[in-house]
Amino acid sequence: MTRYLLFRALSLSLSLIVASAVIFAVIEVIPGDPAAFMLGLNATDEAIANLRAELGLEGGLIPRYVSWVTGMLQGDFGTSYNYRVPVAELIADRIWVSVPLAVLALILSTLIAVPVGVLAAANRGRAGDYATMGVTQLGIAVPNFWFAMVLVLLFAVQRPWFPSGGFAGWDDPWAALRSLTLPAIALALPQAAILARVMRSALIETLDQDYIRTARAKGLSQRQSILRHALRNALIPVLTIIGLQFSFLLAGAIIIENVFYIPGLGRLIFQGITQRDLIVVESVTMLLVFAVIVVTFLVDIAYTLVDPRLRRS
Predict the structure, then answer these.
(1) Torsion, CA 270, CA 274, CA 276, CA 278, rounded to 10
(2) Which residues form the ABC transmembrane type-1 domain (predicted)?
């Protein structure tokens, strides 16, 4: 198992290096001069040159890439062109909003999807199974920002149980959780639909195995065979989807954070793009890529805990 994990760690580290090079290259080849954009149309050449020097835009791409990566390894993500503060401070302020939002959405989607998938698989071919799959198909087809608008209309406008936007801050944890509830539900519903279908398919495939038939022949009920034998083996593909969903919820919540005006990493990236704050876009995107790779590695570790065959190999 140790060799397996070391191999995966090396592979993911190489992926991180390649991702950093691609992100830097894509951002840097975008047409336009950030310094000229910030100063406006009436800026003089001298003012633009001075600002480029101040922002570290002088020099070749390779020295700037090496300086950027070295700085990130030391915790220095550079200085925002627009906010004129270290990017690390912006990330530190926003990450305590995005991470709890992603975790809350992932918990909600898992709590919804796993029981729904198990019930659908246990009632395969019956009316409840067809109804469940129809609802999950609808959940996949409808975008999460539509769910967000419906939730705001129902639970913030007609029934003012939750705030319609903004973030109350962690000084009041209850108010902060209320601020994140509707965005988390809007993010969780489409993910729960995907996860429920994966759970159903994996469990149906497991229930057709010979060892499940043997367990049933020994007198175990369907419920007992599912809970004792089938569910754990069916969780292997589900873990992959859960890991990918957390990465998506953390990195792909840009629309939801803008709908609810939540000051998270997604909204920070959106603001950086519109304001051509390239160092913010580069650094936050790289941080999210790192989070995706770390989650992938944790999923690999979870595989070894769930599947004994990986430990023996």
Answers:
(1) 10
(2) 95-299
